[in-house]
């Protein structure tokens, strides 16, 4: 019987197996950031332990960093967390792209950008959006700080073999339907925890047609469906993205790797614990209206009403979400007025995302009631965007153009949405308080965010891209 | 990790679904570099008013719900961010057991690493417990060895737990220590890679 890529990678990484225990898995790449690592390094220090494989570990700082002026960090507690990472990396000899490093950026943007992320790897990071790296055909998942310490000390992790879930997305997307809309649509249909205990394999024509950036957006939000990880089989798109990247071998060594990577692809007769099939034609531009990412509808639809929910828990969740969001049952999505636009985060802050947003923005102005910012995913993305003149397009329209970081996705720095105000955000979570206490988040694609910035409310972005294909 | 064997203590109802870790411990408290002292910030945005005073309508602020160590919640508890600060905050506040119909994977794992016992029970059992937990005083007895949870009113149910984690919790073992005993396996794996 054939195997899926999930099973193949899993088996290749088993260091130790024992009846009644999870598998002990080897970890090929451990990404580290300032927020979830300090207690792990302290733990090592207290026990006199070392980092087993600094060469398989890579650190950056992203969650806390200011994006307006990185020379001045007023938040002393945040500054302490960043200097702690610097000291830890020095002491334990872990490579670090610190705040002044040209490679600095959001950990899930720089991993692929630097070619650290490769097919067939097991990748962990103390961050739930580690699932992003699955776009390359790796098993990548978020871990807590105790496990960060465990991986630092042992380069392994204990894990029960996951269940497998194949999501096949067939057909062709309409123009104006982004990768973000695809994953938001999946969440809107299958809920906030449908993936619990599973690793998702995304497949089908829609996924095959996607760029690496788009696949990263899809895999990134696997965790929003509760999945342990999400991945895509590597193909020519994957290999050509990786060729020539900083940490990717060149010449014959690269060709040998490609041969190995091809062998990982799921067998035709692989079986899965669960299969979901989706038709691209059913997917439209999406906007979240509630307080979890599954509370999302098509931009042309209205907010659901209590009668759309069968369970008491469902009705109660709708009521409390709409109370928090200051919205009404049955209200048209296009009528939601917004005051902020955030283009950024590990979901949608790559060069292609900025290009797409800029294609909508070009020649337009940000609505007078809207404050809009673009936060590139890495300093490299920022530099490349500036080479293409994207910064000028955004700035001319009235956007703020920032340095890289997690920024307004979770507002740990000073990029905050004020209480009661609505933000069209290309990030991944619309939880209560996520972008600031009382802030009201709407998850959207970069082109929807751009359109909302111009109009001050959501619009059917398909009408704006009819003449210009998204890709 | 401290050992967990049995616990008989006050259990309270927290009848909310999809409680995410951003609510359990908001981001502004993730900047500290210690594992301790997070209990004061637990459920911060729900627990406190904008002026810093206690929100009187929030479950945990009610007089009857003070000093509990067992929290009964609804499905998909602990979803979202991987922050281990969530179980640190729950533990520091005083919760040692969380009962719910389901847990998000990373949170579930993070609890076990810190000696907080996440118990998943069938939905109908949790609904019963939520009703019971709304009336105080209400005590539950958790026995990890027997894998049972019961009260003094005749409610009893057994729960599933991974055998590995049961052993780890009952002995309070350090997982890294266990893994380092397999160091030769890890080295052999690394050598085979070359």
TrEMBL record, chain A:
Biological or metabolic pathway of the protein: Amino-acid biosynthesis; L-leucine biosynthesis; L-leucine from 3-methyl-2-oxobutanoate: step 2/4
Keyword Iron in record: yes
Domain of life of the native organism: Bacteria
Cross-referenced Pfam families: Aconitase (PF00330)
EC identifiers of the protein: 4.2.1.33
Names of the cofactor(s): [4Fe-4S] cluster
InterPro entries for the chain: 3-IsopropMal_deHydase_lsu (IPR004430), Acnase/IPM_dHydase_lsu_aba_1/3 (IPR015931), Acoase/IPM_deHydtase_lsu_aba (IPR001030), Aconitase_4Fe-4S_BS (IPR018136), Aconitase_4Fe-4S_dom (IPR036008), IPM_dehydratase_rel_enz (IPR050067), IPMI_cat (IPR033941)
Residues binding [4Fe-4S] cluster: 346, 406, 409
Domain (Aconitase/3-isopropylmalate dehydratase large subunit alpha/beta/alpha) ranges: 7-456
Broadest EC class assigned to this enzyme: lyase
Catalysis: reaction(s): citrate = D-threo-isocitrate; (2R,3S)-3-isopropylmalate = (2S)-2-isopropylmalate
Keywords, in A-Z order: 4Fe-4S, Amino-acid biosynthesis, Branched-chain amino acid biosynthesis, Iron, Iron-sulfur, Leucine biosynthesis, Lyase, Metal-binding
SUPFAM superfamilies noted in UniProt: Aconitase iron-sulfur domain (SSF53732)
Reported function: Catalyzes the isomerization between 2-isopropylmalate and 3-isopropylmalate, via the formation of 2-isopropylmaleate.
Family: Belongs to the aconitase/IPM isomerase family. LeuC type 1 subfamily.
Descriptive protein name: 3-isopropylmalate dehydratase large subunit
Record organism: Cytobacillus stercorigallinarum
Record lineage: Bacteria, Bacillati, Bacillota, Bacilli, Bacillales
Gene: leuC
TrEMBL record, chain B:
Reaction catalysed by this enzyme: (2R,3S)-3-isopropylmalate = (2S)-2-isopropylmalate
UniProt entry tagged with the keyword Amino-acid biosynthesis: yes
Residues annotated as domain Aconitase A/isopropylmalate dehydratase small subunit swivel: 1-123
Any one Pfam family match given in the protein's UniProt record, by short name: Aconitase_C
Domain of life: Bacteria
TM spans (from-to): none
Primary enzyme class: lyase
Listed CDD domains: IPMI_Swivel
Pathway: Amino-acid biosynthesis; L-leucine biosynthesis; L-leucine from 3-methyl-2-oxobutanoate: step 2/4
Enzyme Commission number(s) of this protein: 4.2.1.33
Keywords: Amino-acid biosynthesis, Branched-chain amino acid biosynthesis, Leucine biosynthesis, Lyase
Example GO molecular function: 3-isopropylmalate dehydratase activity
Signal peptide: none
Task of the protein: Catalyzes the isomerization between 2-isopropylmalate and 3-isopropylmalate, via the formation of 2-isopropylmaleate.
Stated family: Belongs to the LeuD family. LeuD type 1 subfamily.
Subunit structure: Heterodimer of LeuC and LeuD.
Protein name per the record: 3-isopropylmalate dehydratase small subunit
């Amino acid at each position: 019987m054939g195997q899926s890529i999930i099973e193949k990678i899993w088996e290749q990484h088993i260091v130790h197996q024992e009846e009644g225990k999870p598998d002990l898995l080897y970890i090929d790449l451990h990404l580290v950031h300032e927020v979830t690592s300090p207690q792990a390094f302290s733990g090592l220090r207290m026990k006199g332990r070392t980092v087993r494989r600094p060469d398989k570990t890579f650190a950056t700082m992203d969650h806390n960093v200011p994006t307006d002026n990185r020379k001045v960090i007023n938040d002393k507690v945040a500054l302490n967390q960043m200097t702690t990472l610097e000291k830890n990396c020095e002491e334990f000899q872990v490579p670090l792209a610190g705040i002044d490093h040209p490679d600095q950026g959001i950990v899930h943007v720089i991993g692929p950008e630097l070619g650290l992320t490769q097919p067939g790897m097991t990748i962990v990071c103390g961050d739930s959006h580690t699932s992003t790296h699955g776009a390359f055909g790796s098993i990548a998942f978020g871990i807590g700080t105790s496990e960060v310490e465990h991986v630092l000390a042992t380069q392994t992790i204990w894990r029960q073999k996951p269940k497998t879930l194949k999501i096949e997305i067939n057909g062709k997307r309409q123009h104006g339907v982004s990768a973000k809309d695809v994953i938001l649509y999946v969440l809107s249909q299958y809920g906030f925890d449908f993936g619990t205990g599973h690793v998702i394999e995304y497949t089908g024509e829609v996924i095959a047609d996607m760029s690496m950036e788009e696949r990263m957006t899809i895999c990134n939000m696997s965790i929003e469906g509760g999945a342990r990880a999400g991945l895509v089989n590597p193909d020519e798109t994957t290999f050509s993205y990786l060729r020539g990247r900083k940490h990717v071998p060149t010449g014959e060594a690269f060709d040998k790797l490609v041969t190995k990577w091809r062998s990982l692809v799921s067998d035709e007769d692989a079986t899965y614990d669960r299969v979901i099939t989706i038709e691209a034609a059913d997917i439209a531009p999406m906007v979240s209206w509630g307080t979890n990412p599954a509370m999302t509808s098509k931009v042309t639809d209205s907010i659901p009403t209590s009668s759309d929910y069968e369970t008491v828990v469902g009705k109660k969740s709708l009521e409390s979400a709409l109370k928090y969001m200051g919205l009404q049952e049955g209200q048209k999505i296009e009528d939601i007025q917004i005051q902020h636009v955030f283009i950024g985060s590990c979901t949608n802050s790559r060069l292609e995302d900025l290009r797409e947003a800029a294609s909508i923005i070009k020649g337009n102005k940000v609505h007078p009631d809207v404050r809009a910012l673009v936060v590139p995913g890495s300093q490299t993305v920022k530099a490349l965007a500036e080479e293409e003149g994207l910064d000028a397009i955004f700035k001319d329209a009235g956007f703020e153009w920032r340095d890289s970081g997690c920024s307004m996705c979770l507002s740990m720095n000073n990029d905050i949405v004020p209480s009661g105000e609505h933000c069209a955000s290309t990030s991944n979570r619309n939880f209560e308080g996520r972008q600031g206490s009382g802030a009201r988040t709407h998850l959207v694609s970069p082109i929807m965010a751009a359109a909302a910035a111009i109009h001050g409310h959501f619009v059917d972005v398909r009408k704006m891209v009819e003449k210009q294909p998204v890709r | 990790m401290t050992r967990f064997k049995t616990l008989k203590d006050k259990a309270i109802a927290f009848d909310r679904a999809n409680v995410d870790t951003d609510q359990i411990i908001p981001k502004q408290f993730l900047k500290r570099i210690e594992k301790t002292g997070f209990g004061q910030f637990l459920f911060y945005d729900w627990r406190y008013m904008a002026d810093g005073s206690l929100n009187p309508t929030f479950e945990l602020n009610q007089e009857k719900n003070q000093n509990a160590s067992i929290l009964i919640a609804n499905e998909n508890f602990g979803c979202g961010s991987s922050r281990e600060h969530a179980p640190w905050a729950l533990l520091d506040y005083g919760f040692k057991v969380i009962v719910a119909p389901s847990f998000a994977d990373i949170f579930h794992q993070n609890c076990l690493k810190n000696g907080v016992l996440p118990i998943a029970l069938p939905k109908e059992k949790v609904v019963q417990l939520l009703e019971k937990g709304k009336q105080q005083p209400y005590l539950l007895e958790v026995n990890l060895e027997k894998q049972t949870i019961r009260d003094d009113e005749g409610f009893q149910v057994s729960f599933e737990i991974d055998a590995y984690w049961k052993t780890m919790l009952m002995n309070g073992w350090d997982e890294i220590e266990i893994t380092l005993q397999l160091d030769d396996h890890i080295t052999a794996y690394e050598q085979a890679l070359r």
